[in-house]
Amino acid sequence: MADYLAERARLGGHELAVLTDLARGRRVRIARRGATLLNFELPARDGVRDIADGYRDAGELDSRPSSRFAVMVPFANRIADARYAFDGQTYDLQPGVEGAQRAARHGFVRGVDFDIAALAADGEAARVTFVTQAIRPDVHPGYPFAIDLAVTYTLDAHGLSLEASMRNVGEHAAPCFFGWHPYFRLGESPIDSWELQIPAATLVHTDADFIPLAGAAAHVPMAREPALDFRQAQPIGVRQLNHAYADLRCDADGRARTRLRDPASGLAIAVWQRSGVMLAFTADTVTRDVRRAVALEPMESWADAFNRPDCAAAIRLEPGAERRFLCGVEITAA
Question: Do 260 and 294 form a contact (C-beta atoms < 8 A)?
């Protein structure tokens, strides 16, 4: 009997990849649309628990409310006023749009049907690689660059990992970075009692539109923000989080782990990344099930990074160059 399976399935008109860890009773389902994770099922005290608070049906996958489990490329989170400057040129991502309707969020690939380039399983893991060439000049206003994107999900004994590969196939340097927007629901108890730990030395200060303040004003030592300091695990309580945490401390294996635990269900996870920032969001403004899940978003760089000199080196991708970002979810208690 095989230890892992990698199969195809459907959700309405959408094709899915299904990865199964038979030995541990874990299964993930990922749609071609946006390379979007829909489910992450595992055994729990009360039977099978889906810890991914993802889209429930084909209609939600089409409309993409709250950007659940969005793959965010070539930028994550927001760009201020949908405008940015790069290499001496200014760009407008929403030409002709004025006022409050201007908003650039979460990149360009949430609605793209990726191709499945590889789907396989062996004795160690099940894997699927999604690829797209949808980011091209003249396709997205204000972004005249060409990026090939590949996203590989791997389910193994430790949990689920995600590796993004971004290659600049154009003739000019491009601003580009990766982010992931997962929502986790570890139990039916209120998230106020869930315990959160974020190994960050710095809190990113933003304005009312969640754009980081200019320059050094955005870098606030964690000790100066005790109400938002989760360096030691503690209940979330009534706090409303929509905050990015930077200068993450890595463990000995090079992974920075943000930990979430529901004492009532006994489930606990660690969302890991090797670099970048972690954005924690308590889902206070979503359109479905307010404060019933927590989004833990590993991002390669900051919101509005396209406009920040202190992010310029991290997001610059030269012609022909490729950059990879790794993150994932470990099951630490079930």
Answer: yes
CB atoms under 10 Å from CB of 118, counted, come to: 13
Q: For a pLDDT cut of 70, what percent of the chain falls above it? A: 100
Give the Cα separation of 232 and 187 in Å (integer): 22
Rounded to whole angstroms, the Cα distance separating 135 from 48 reads 38
For residue 145, which of 131, 166, 130, 114 has the smallest C-alpha distance? 166
Q: What is the pLDDT of residue 313?
A: 96
Cβ atoms 178, 300 nearer than 8 A: yes
What is the pLDDT, as a whole number, of residue 1?
57
For residue 58, the SS3 value is helix
Rounded-to-integer distance, Cα 198 and Cα 278, Å:
8
Q: Which residues of the chain have pLDDT under 50?
A: none
Range of the domain at 44: 4-333
Cα-to-chain-centroid distance, residue 170: 25
Q: Which two tokens stand for residue 221?
A: 């030592």
Instruction: Give the model's pLDDT for residue 145.
Output: 98
Structure tokens at 267: 């489930």
Exposed/middle/buried for residue 253 (C-beta within 10 Å: 0-12, 13-18, 19+): exposed
Q: Is the dihedral of CA 226, 230, 236, 241 positive or negative?
A: positive
Cβ atoms 40, 154 nearer than 8 A: no
The reported pLDDT for the residue numbered 265 is 94
Q: What is the CATH number of the domain that holds 41?
A: 2.70.98.10
8-state DSSP, 60: H
